[in-house]
Amino acid sequence: MNKHLFYLSNDQLFAYQWQNGQLSGGTVFHNEADGIERFMDYLDSQPVMPALLLADLIEEDFQRINVPHVAGPGGRKLLQRRLLQQYRETPYRYVEVQGRLAEGRRDDSVLLAALTNPGAVLPWVEALDRLQVPLAGLYSTTLLSSILVRKLALRDAHLLLLTEQSGGWRQSYFQNGQLKFSRLTAAINRDGQPINLGTEAAKTQQFLTSVRLMGRGNVLHAVVVAPVTSTPVLESQCEDGPETSFRFLSLSHVATRLGLRSANLQVEQLATQLADPMLLALLARQDSASQYPLGAVRRHYQLWRTRRVLYWGSALLAGASLLWLGASLWQARDARQHSARLLAEAGSYDQRYRAVMAAMPPSVASTANMRAAVNVERMLGTQGPSPLDMVQMVSAALEQAPQIRLLQLDWKVAHNDSAGPVGNALTLQTDSRQAAPISSLMLGIPGKPAQRLVVEAEILGDQDDYRGAVDQMNRFAQQLANNPRLTVAIEKPPLDTRSSVKLSGKAGPAGEATHPRFALNLMWKP
Q1: Are residues 131 and 19 in the same domain?
Q2: Distances (CA, A) of 134 to 48, 287, 300, 304
Q3: Does the first or last residue of the chain, that is N or C, have fewer Cβ atoms within 10 Å of its Cβ?
Q4: What is the DSSP string of 143-193?
Q5: Could you tell me if residue 88 is inside a domain?
Q6: Whole-Å CA distances, 430 to 374, 380, 427, 433
Q7: β strands within 31-92, DSSP E
Q8: Which of 70, 68, 72, 54 is nearest to 18 (CA)?
Q9: pLDDT 10s digits, 468-499
Q10: Which pTM was predicted?
Q11: Containing domain of residue 243, as a range?
């Protein structure tokens, strides 16, 4: 992401651009009315990009306090209250919990920091606000050096990091990797001569011992980051002592360790520069949250980020819509091809049908008559009369009467006026001679017709037991009459006792053995 990078010292501001992973620019604006106006003119000529402001000021104070350990929102409110009590005159405040004490009630060890001279920052911030430049954050070179120490793997228990920057020599003290104190010393003394870095490091060590950050006998490891051309002079000023050890790292070596090769910074040019570009490049690659709060000034950045999210969302939505449109067009194309293929197949089948029909002789019957004939055939198949149903009823009754033996069955379709209307008549014509019409009811049109079955049977058993024979016949008839659609009538009983009938036959054991016979007339209306 392209960015504006501003490096702010006590009396001037350096403007850089971070574009495509490369740092360029370095325009200088002095802290005066004319410099502010020139800075605003410069911003008007630049594209809208998020801005990062890196401050390297003398008026940056650091305090270490111990507070009771409180977790959650209550602990955060406690820290903010102590921070406000310590620095009331500036809005640029920073707090960091650096662990807990090992003894006592194990309070939290807290680092408080602030830019105590907000007047050095406000003119530039107000200029950015008036031009609605999206200012993403305000950072400190001292707080940023914690990242530098971690990436360089400097793990000394007592470490003093010295970097030459636009404002002078920044000396930051780290205890077990945690920032405890920092001071900025001018690179030129009052006489206009370069300062003695070894002497300044000794003063810093004496101060650390006086405030009990270091105990006597502890060795302070001083790491000096400077251009290669300055290293011989600095080595002559910095001599190791009983409690001091100096180590020198060139800017090019540090840039290589940080991964800031020529894709980000020109390492060859870095040997003659200060540490400002290297810190700016490191900040541009971190993309971390603002270290010092900006308040309402940050609203332009929030609006810019929201607008950017909406642009990306719109682009993604447009891309998805285009993909959906392309897929729909592709499916429509396939559908048209499939439809054309189906139409071609339908046309081929129609042509083959017409060819087949043209080869066939002309039909006498019309289509409607053929359809009616098919319907009549189906109706005859499902509703035509058949003796099978009545025979199954008789068979089921015979299974319940083993003494009865079936002799003869006479089945016919009952066609009389009591059975209902005759309906349409079907006429059979053969050799131009017209036969008698047959009622459609007898053929099962429109419903199954009534059917009649005469059952003749004999009763097995004792020859002269006519009373038992009558009982056997009655039970058989009752079994058949259980069907609600079947009417049973006794046409001839085993023994006819009517007065109008002449008694005949033989009694006794002599002669041929005969069994009583009877006949039932069954009427079934389905």
Answers
A1: yes
A2: 8, 14, 5, 6
A3: N
A4: HHHHHHHHHTT---SEEEEEEEETTEEEEEEEETTEEEEEEEE-SB-TTSS
A5: no
A6: 21, 21, 10, 6
A7: 51-55, 60-67
A8: 54
A9: 888 888 888 898 899 888 899 888 888 766 56
A10: 0.63
A11: 3-59+117-293
